[in-house]
Design a protein that fits this description.
The complex is a heterodimer of chains A (499) and B (185). By secondary structure, chain A is mainly α. Chain A has one domain. Chain A contains 21 helices and 2 strands. In chain A, strands 1-2 form a two-stranded antiparallel ribbon. The termini of chain A are far apart. With 185 residues, chain B is an all-alpha fold. Chain B is flat and about 70 Å long. The chains are: A mainly alpha (499), B mainly alpha (185). At the A-B interface, helix 5, helix 8, strand 2, helix 9 and helix 17 of A face helix 1, helix 2, helix 3, helix 4 and helix 5 of B.
């Protein structure tokens, strides 16, 4: 492994063009992740056609680096503006934004920088050491039933955070699942709910939905606060947390690395679920559960460690099985195809140098988050000085461009603003925006894997549940769901007695 | 009725309408899939069924607790504006702010990004309370130049050009200018 890593490093740093592409990816990913309204996906979508002109290793490496640094960059907007740069940063906003309101933005961003770097680096090391054995394990043990079970568990976790009640949490998730049914069904390709619009046959693209629900709705919320004279500008602070402060959360970091890595390995699940699961586990194991959502730094640490830990792991199904774990890894498949290559087991034998350049680049990208991230953060924090009425049009316009670029459809810009309006109204009524977004993202994956799983076991539930990993995940999801409903009903009984 | 109020009933009505619309429209694609027993409607109808169950749970909860937040919830929204007195001008302002982006999105097809964007930026700034003309024009232009610089000149991103003259001609002029700038490098 070390020899391969050194060879990959030499190939990466031995060619000036490759170095330039690496640096561009690191800085571009961080910047696009950290600019409210656009995301690493916007940059990746713009760069995709240009990657055809690069060497295969350079093209794949560029997207892998953007994936690592963009996942971290999205935390900054989540913390500073309550606008997650990507869905995997949504749980970061739960505690990051309250910290900003308390004047602790520097501490939250500092924790995100360090934990993203630690989670990502650990994940890169695990990926380098274990891609092949893990891929073999995944082939043997992970199938559609397990993926569906994990989706179910993830949705159960998502419903337990965000909404004012468990019911509103579930209503949010189910609304997301319903939105995800728009477009072709994943088994027979039959058009569903396109209401006569041919552009809807491909479904609701999740980038406009995410930008609408997160970025646009937040702008609407702040505009309303401004109209009613209740707007408070976020407080600027650049005091980073000390190492001793962060050391207290070492167990949360280690736990989130494992949670993130496990979620990342599973094809189609990716970093978003990792962040929710990391956050959910932090709440579950904490002695001070009530402080979550009010500015507990452990919330930021857990979700940021988990989502970056998923980035390295997401490369395993992509490279070993040819299965992308999310939108950005799907674009990486396109990069392979531009060069007449297919990601999959044969890549390890046909192009080992490409694999190790990518692995080395991901390792160095995660390490560079720590150094460049700290410098960049001090600059990005100055965004808080820009008055809201000048920042808002910039964010709305960036979000419009970000929505449009993916598919070149004006309909996507409309969907984004509609999602923003719906998100604004739902937030006011205590619903969970991250729950809706997770429902949209996982809906199709869940349905597809449920259908495949059912076909595999010939619709026999006993056989379905006889798969140990599937059973464990279903039970974990059911316990999470049951506990949430029990708490709600118990509070109902207390409420009824008090009446 | 407990703590149920008109707002809760309205809210439940909206959710029931969503569930009903999705259920009724599912008959439009109610086709069998040979390889899959549950067909194209199985999953959406299961989601609708679960939604109905959860709506019932929500109504039951609101009947006892009203709009109060369930104890132990994490990441809940803090709606401190709910009890604020609402002046007509503020409500109008918020309503305009909600509608303006939709108008902008609608205008992108006929007018195009290049002509619609500076106007949209200026209107947003005005709706957010800025009244100094120099600042409105200056910041709108600054935002426009930054976006054009990054997405048109540096990244060559394709943006909506419009279909109606003279907006289409303006977009064509911008793109010609971009080509000339690209040739300089």
């Amino acid at each position: 492994m070390i020899d391969n890593f050194l060879a990959g490093s030499a190939a990466l740093f031995g060619d000036p063009v490759t170095i330039l592409i690496f640096v561009f990816g690191v800085i571009g990913g961080m910047l696009f992740g950290a600019i409210p309204g656009v995301s690493m996906l916007t940059l990746a979508a713009i760069l995709l056609p240009f990657s055809a002109g690069l060497e295969p290793a350079q093209g794949v490496m560029l997207f892998a680096v953007i994936y690592c640094t963009g996942t971290y960059g999205g935390a900054i907007t989540a913390i500073l503006f309550n606008i997650p740069g990507a869905p995997e940063n949504a749980p970061t906003a739960f505690d990051g934004y309250p910290m900003t309101k308390k004047g602790l933005a520097g501490k939250a961003v500092g924790a995100a920088v360090l934990c993203s770097a630690v989670g990502g680096t650990a994940s890169a090391l695990l990926m380098m050491a274990a891609t092949e054995p893990l891929a073999h394990w995944a082939i043997r043990n992970i199938g559609p039933p397990e993926i569906f079970a994990l989706v179910f568990f993830g949705l159960a976790v998502a419903s337990s955070v965000g909404g004012n009640t468990i019911w509103k949490g579930w209503m949010s998730v189910l609304l997301g699942l319903l939105v995800a049914t728009i477009g072709q069904d994943p088994v027979g390709g039959i058009n569903r709910y396109n209401f006569g619009m041919s552009d809807l046959a491909a479904g609701i693209a999740f980038v406009p939905a995410i930008l609408g629900f997160f970025a646009v709705s937040e702008i609407f919320v702040q505009a309303e606060r401004r109209a009613f004279g209740k707007y408070n500008a976020p407080k600027l602070s650049v005091d980073f947390p000390s190492f001793a402060e962060l050391w207290r959360y070492k167990i949360a970091v280690v736990r989130s690395i494992f949670v993130g890595f496990f979620c990342g390995i599973l094809p189609g699940i990716g970093a978003t679920l990792a962040a929710f699961m990391g956050y959910g586990e932090a709440v579950r194991w904490s002695k001070d559960k009530k402080s979550f959502g009010k500015g507990n730094i452990e919330g930021v640490i857990s979700s940021e460690t988990a989502n970056n830990a998923a980035t390295g792991a997401a490369m395993i199904p992509l490279l070993a099985l040819g299965l992308p774990g999310g939108a950005l890894t799907a674009m990486m498949v396109a990069v392979f195809q531009f060069h007449d290559m297919e990601p999959g087991p044969l890549v390890f034998y046909n192009s080992p140098e490409l694999i190790w350049v990518v692995f080395a680049a991901m390792f160095y990208a995660n390490v560079s988050i720590l150094f460049i991230g700290l410098i960049e953060t001090k600059t990005i924090l100055q965004l808080l000085r820009i008055p809201f009425h000048f920042l808002a049009p910039m964010i709305l316009l960036l979000a419009s461009i970000g929505s449009y670029i993916g598919r070149g459809l004006v309909l996507d810009v409309m969907i984004m603003f509609l999602a923003g309006m719906i998100g604004f109204l739902l937030r006011r009524s205590g619903y969970s925006i991250p729950g809706i977004v997770l429902g949209i993202i996982l809906g199709k994956i869940g349905e597809q894997n449920f259908a495949q799983g059912m076909q595999m076991v010939h619709y026999d539930l006993v056989t379905y549940l006889s798969r140990p990993i599937c059973l464990i995940l279903i039970i974990a999801g059911a316990i999470t769901l049951g506990a949430g409903v029990y708490k709600a009903l118990a509070s109902n009984r207390v409420g009824a007695k008090q009446e | 009725m407990g703590h149920l109020n008109k707002y809760h009933m309205f809210e439940a009505g909206i959710w029931l309408t969503i569930a009903t619309v999705f259920f009724i429209y599912s008959f439009e694609f109610n086709q069998n899939i040979e390889i899959y027993k549950f067909g194209a409607t199985g999953w959406p109808r299961a989601v609708v069924l679960m939604l109905l169950f959860v709506i019932a749970g929500n109504i039951f909860h609101q009947r006892i607790h009203g709009s109060s937040i369930q104890a132990g919830r994490v990441g809940v929204s803090d709606d401190d504006l709910a009890k604020e007195p609402k002046t007509l001008s503020a409500v109008m302002n918020v309503s305009s702010f909600l509608v303006l982006p939709l108008v902008y999105a609608w205008s992108l097809k006929p007018i195009g990004f290049y002509a619609a964007t500076p106007v949209f930026a200026a209107l947003v700034i005005i709706l957010l309370g800025e009244r100094r003309p120099k600042w409105i024009v200056g910041i709108s232009l600054l935002i426009y130049i930054m976006l054009i610089g990054l997405f048109m000149i540096v990244l060559n991103a394709p943006l909506p050009q419009g279909t109606v003259s003279p907006f289409y001609d303006f977009s064509a002029f911008m793109l010609r200018m971009n080509t000339q700038i690209q040739h300089l490098f």
